[in-house]
Design brief:
- By secondary structure, the chain is of the alpha+beta class.
- It has a single domain, classed as Rossmann fold, CATH 3.40.50.
- Helix content is about 30%, strand content about 25%.
- A three-stranded antiparallel beta sheet has the order 1-3-2.
- The longest helix has 12 residues.
């Protein structure tokens, strides 16, 4: 899932990840690449978030806590890397392990 998860409203992200969990076989993997709120919060990141908040039809995505969202959905994190394009990006690989506990 590349630069897709951050397109969903925050309350919908767990729903999307739960569906990913549902369709994967035990041991199946999910890779997510997304703009990240982890790391430095520089001027570009603040400008990006401000633009998304005020003009969501123009800028439809925003940085999210990628690793946290994947882990909260019950995936075991196999790897998580951070890169920088012009905003921070997280690359997270999760594996479907045991069934997540209900929140």
């Amino acid at each position: 899932m590349s630069f897709t998860l951050e397109l969903f409203d925050t309350p919908k992200i767990p729903v999307v990840l739960a569906e990913c969990w549902r369709v994967l076989r035990p041991g199946g993997r999910l890779a997510v690449i997304s703009m990240s709120k982890e790391g430095e919060n520089g001027a570009i990141l603040h400008a990006f978030e401000w633009t998304h908040k005020h003009f969501p039809n123009f800028l439809d995505c925003r940085p999210i806590f990628v690793r946290h969202a994947v882990q909260a959905a019950g995936f075991e994190i196999e790897s998580a890397d951070r890169e920088t394009m012009w905003v921070p990006v997280e690359i997270v690989l999760g594996r479907k392990g045991a069934k997540p506990s209900p929140n």
